[in-house]
Structures are given as structure tokens and as C-alpha cells.
Design a protein that fits this description.
Layout lengths: L8 E2 L3 H7 L4 H14 L11 E5 L8 E5 L20 H7 L4 E6 L2 E7 L6 E8 L12 H21 L4 E5 L12 E6 L8 H10 L5 E5 L10 E5 L2 H19 L3 E10 L2 E10 L14 H4 L2 E4 L2 H9 L4 H9 L11
Parallel strand pairs: 3-13
Antiparallel strand pairs: 1-4, 2-3, 4-5, 5-6, 6-8, 7-8, 7-11, 9-10, 10-12, 11-12
Length: about 325
């Protein structure tokens, strides 16, 4: 799938606007990111980061960790006076942030470079209209429609950007801007390899790529219950929506989730991690537990966590326990 870029670049030079017109989305994003880096809007090139591969010693999948102190300074939650940082009127008024506007499954979407990246070519891709991150609203039919569009958008973006990881954080599941629907889009570093959850899922799949698979703590393969769906887009969206709807019936208004879509082989795989809004954090870990963490790759930014790394306290068992602590108590009852 190649998604054409059909919009404009607000506040950009005419040269950039002309260079992305009619280009595939992946190429347009690359050009926007290069311009934002050259002009200093994205000042962090990630070369200073400390990466760790944390091994278990007993055959479980390795976990990854990065120390990224710049992330500690990023804004949290809504902007002052109720303004939304992703609202396009604010972006245009600010005059410094540039963005791409394109059509995603028939509705407007925008892509903006992330000033505080945790991976290379890190973008925020947001709905063109101001709508909440959550799929749940008062009306059941509207909730179902929102959920279907959320999953379809995520899968469509992953298909259009085969080198990227697309991630969505639900409310109290890592979303720092819950009032405006958005995705994270980023690329893993060269040599990083698959995410830990992908490695754990390979064992559960036993060579079968299509359909639905699960890995989790009962098999000692991964500390969270994780579901993977793959196949044709329509079947994927239907299967993933059924999973999330079942989870919503089990947990009611407390239901949340993380969704991650990534190219595997010749197609897209979607990972669904059930979450509960009561458990967004873990003791001894300063950040919210979001999509990257539930995939087994941690970002720490606080000085206390840097000290824990130096002292050896941020070891494999500690990272495993952090993920276990946000696992909903009845997640195993989903199927």
C-alpha cells in the first residue's frame, strides 16, 4: 500500500512544500524531518543515548532500555488555558512547527516531528479534528465506529510506512495528550532487531503468521498478556475490534489498551495489549507505561533511574516486575 501525500506543509518554505506534493507519505515524512533537524526544531539527534540490552540468564527474551534525559523536559498533558498542543490553529499561530496534512482512510490527518524523540525519525501523527484518544463514548454504536476507525488508521499507516513502528496509547496507558487522538511513528535504530514482544510472540506462533496468537506470563514468555493479529486488512481490523470490544465488556469504563502495528514479512501485524486505567504506572519508574514499554523497550529519563542503572538495580527482574505491575488482574480472561 502506498499512501499519497495530498495536503500541504504549513509554515514551510515553498521549496519543501513543492518537494513533497504528490509524494508517498514515507518520502514526505523523511523530507519534513530532515528540514526540522536542519533548522534546529528537532535538536536531539539521539547520539548521546545510552542503550542497554538486559538479559535474563534463563532463556527469556532480552529487554531493552535507553537512558534519555531530554525526555524529562517534554511537556505533559494539556497546554495552558485548555489549548491543545496538536490543535492546528495553535500550530499555525506558533509559526515554528511545520506539519504535513494528508488523507487517512478518507479523513484529515497531520504529521509533526517530535522535538523530544525516543527513536529515530519520530513523528506524532494526529487526527485533523479535535477528538479524544479513547474509543469509548456514551453511545455504543459511535464507540464501535470510533474503534474501527482507530484500528483501520493504525493498520493503514503501518502499511504505508513499512520501515516504521506505529503505536497508539490509550488513556492511562501512556497517553500524555488524551484529549486529541494521535499515534507515535518511529524507526528502530540500525541493529536493534525485533522488539522483545515480537521475539516472545514468535515462539507462541510456531511458524504460523496469519490469524490470532497470544503470548503471556502463563507461558513465562512475556510479563504481559499480548495478542497478535495478522492477515488481510479487513480480517485484521475485525479480529482486533472483537478483542478490544471483549475487553471493554470485561472491564467497562476502566478498559484501556496499547496497540502497536509493524511490518513483519510481507504484511502488517497488529499487537494488542489489554490495560486497566487504574494501573498506568509502576513503582520505581517515573514515566507512564506506554506502547514502547509494553513491547519490552524502556525509556528512562530521571536522574534517580540513571543512578539505579549505575548501581545495577535496574536489572532484568526489575524490568519484568515493572511490566507485571501494570498487567490487569483479569487480562487472562479475555479469551
Amino acid at each position: 500500500m502506498r499512501m499519497p501525500f495530498v495536503g500541504s506543509v504549513e509554515g514551510a518554505s515553498p521549496a519543501l512544500a513543492a518537494s513533497v506534493a504528490g509524494r508517498p507519505l514515507a518520502e514526505a515524512l523523511a523530507r519534513l524531518h530532515a528540514k526540522d533537524v536542519a533548522e534546529g526544531f528537532v535538536a536531539d539527534d539521539l547520539t548521546h543515548l545510552e542503550y542497554y540490552q538486559v538479559v535474563s540468564g534463563d532463556g527469556r527474551v532480552p529487554l531493552f532500555l535507553q537512558y534519555n534525559p531530554a525526555r524529562a523536559g517534554r511537556p505533559q498533558g494539556s497546554a495552558p488555558k485548555g489549548e491543545c498542543p496538536l490543535d492546528l490553529t495553535r500550530v499555525i499561530r506558533d509559526g515554528r512547527q511545520q506539519y504535513l496534512q494528508f488523507s487517512l482512510n478518507g479523513h484529515a490527518a497531520v504529521a509533526l516531528s517530535t522535538p523530544w524523540p525516543f527513536m529515530r525519525r519520530h513523528f506524532t501523527i494526529a487526527s485533523g479534528e479535535h477528538e479524544p484518544q479513547s474509543w469509548t463514548v456514551g453511545d455504543a454504536a459511535e464507540s464501535r465506529a470510533r474503534l474501527g476507525r482507530l484500528i483501520s488508521d493504525l493498520v493503514g499507516l503501518a502499511a504505508a510506512l513499512p520501515g516504521a513502528v506505529l503505536a497508539w496509547n490509550g488513556e492511562n496507558a501512556g497517553a500524555t495528550l488524551p484529549h486529541h487522538r494521535h499515534f507515535h511513528c518511529f524507526e528502530l535504530p540500525e541493529g536493534h532487531g525485533p522488539l522483545p514482544v515480537q521475539l516472545a510472540m514468535r515462539t507462541a506462533m510456531r511458524g504460523t503468521r496469519a490469524g490470532m496468537h497470544r503470548c503471556g506470563p502463563r507461558e513465562n514468555g512475556f510479563p504481559l498478556d499480548v495478542y497478535r493479529v495478522a492477515g488481510g486488512k479487513r480480517a485484521m481490523v475485525a479480529s482486533a475490534r472483537t478483542l478490544v470490544e471483549r475487553w471493554t465488556r470485561l472491564q467497562g469504563p476502566s478498559a484501556s489498551a496499547n496497540l502497536v502495528a509493524v511490518t513483519e514479512g510481507q504484511g502488517v501485524a497488529l499487537y494488542f495489549v489489554p490495560r486497566h486505567r487504574l494501573f498506568p504506572r509502576a513503582l520505581g519508574f517515573s514515566a507512564l507505561i506506554g506502547s514502547l514499554e509494553v513491547c519490552g523497550s524502556f525509556v528512562v529519563a530521571a536522574e534517580s533511574e540513571r543512578q539505579a542503572l549505575a548501581d545495577g538495580r535496574m536489572d532484568y527482574q526489575r524490568l519484568w516486575t515493572i511490566l507485571e505491575s501494570v498487567r490487569p488482574p483479569i487480562a487472562h480472561r479475555l479469551l
